[in-house]
Amino acid sequence: MADKNNFDVAVIGAGPAGMMAAITAARLGASVALLERNERPGRKLLLTGKGRCNITNAEFDLRKLVANYGQGGPFLFHAFSIFGPKAVIDFFEAAGVATIIEDKQRVFPKSMKSQDVLDALARQLAELRVRLLFDTTATGISKKGGLISSVRTAATDVTAKKYIIATGGKSYIGTGSTGDGYEWAHYLGHRIEKLAPALVPIKTKDVWAKKLAGVGLENIRISVESLGKKVMSLTGDVLFTYFGLSGPAILDISARVGDLLAAGETKIVLDIMPQLRRDEFEKEILQNFSQTPNRALKNCLAVFMPQNLALAVCELAIVDPEMSVNNVTMVARRRLVDTIKNVALTVVGLMDIESGMVTAGGVANEFIDDKTMRSKIINNLFFAGEIINVHGRTGGFNLQQCWSTGYLAGASAASCLAKRK
Q1: Count of alpha carbons within 13 Å of 55, Cβ hemisphere only?
Q2: Range of the domain at 21
Q3: 19, 37, 132, 151, 382 from 34: Cα distances, Å
Q4: How far apart are CA 128 and CA 24, in angstroms?
Q5: What's the total number of domains in the chain?
Q6: Buried (b) or exposed (e) across 245-284, using 16+ Cβ within 10 A?
Q7: Is residue 355 domain-resident?
Q8: Of 300, 323, 350, which residue is a domain's last?
Q9: Where are the alpha helices (DSSP H) in 264-387?
Q10: What is the tens place of the pLDDT at every residue in 344-374?
Q11: pTM, rounded to two decimals
């Protein structure tokens, strides 16, 4: 049994990755301390999925799963093979959290309450007698002879044989994600890839778009142009805001858009009617106009899109929205069609890093053993969760990364202890 401040494993950060790491190590017989600067664990977890907690994505094909994490995805292949989406679902079902799969394979607790997920984790921490050190801010890390010797706090030093840093990123700073873990990792010799907001809304300069705040569009085609050339496209949901664009598809491309913007002018182009080719859509418009020739243009266009957007389209196409459709010339009609198929917005930036759901960047993957999550330069240190330089799309993928790397770090730390005994 560990004494008051000496443990087999010390985990810094009681977010999803840290809690999973602590539970896993304790299940394997290690004495575990879990340090958290807040007065309770999982504050950011409670916010996920708009309070419903999208715990994972039911993508059980490992190669397809990895593809949702961009260039850093292959680093997670082993972690997912050890503790993937199916294992996460089984873990929570066994802990009393029934799950349900919604659209786009997103997995939620059946109750749709993130508190139930957090409560299940808290019960296991208690049952396994993990030492919970809440309201405990780690102020620094001491090292000796190439190993971590202790974690300093305002009250005392916490010592352990193995340490796991799971302090998260810099997003949602109010939940305790202050970025301290990056400073400690750098101090210990790890390279930190540039931090940037990921899964964050995008700011645009177009005044007309601000009038559409609150208007949402589903399953439209979104293209990104950099320096006049199309570089990527996808289909998804978009939400207009007072500052620009948000919604799942926009969040997914935000990190890439930020990189492109650094190189020069970047535009987002929306195809509001992607299911129809340009000529097909023009026929649809003509048919609609012929059925109600005396109807105002803005009302006819509202058949295809929200009326606020119809008014904006008319403004962009320089066509009077109040005119009856039998007065719309062929030239004007084609301008309307072209506009609807190519609504262009100029990007001016991303919302700040604290507004992002996830932080891009972090501890460079080349410094971490992907088979164990152990540091390659500090033998008794492991990493888990968002602090690692890899992030996924929306839809449960980032929590899956936390569960998987947390599980692997906790299991590896405990296994190293067992080998030494």
Answers
A1: 32
A2: 6-197+360-420
A3: 8, 10, 5, 12, 14
A4: 10
A5: 2
A6: bbbebbbbbbbbbbebbeeeebbbbbbbbeebeeeebbee
A7: no
A8: 350
A9: 278-291, 297-301, 307-317, 330-341
A10: 999 999 988 766 678 889 999 999 999 999 9
A11: 0.87
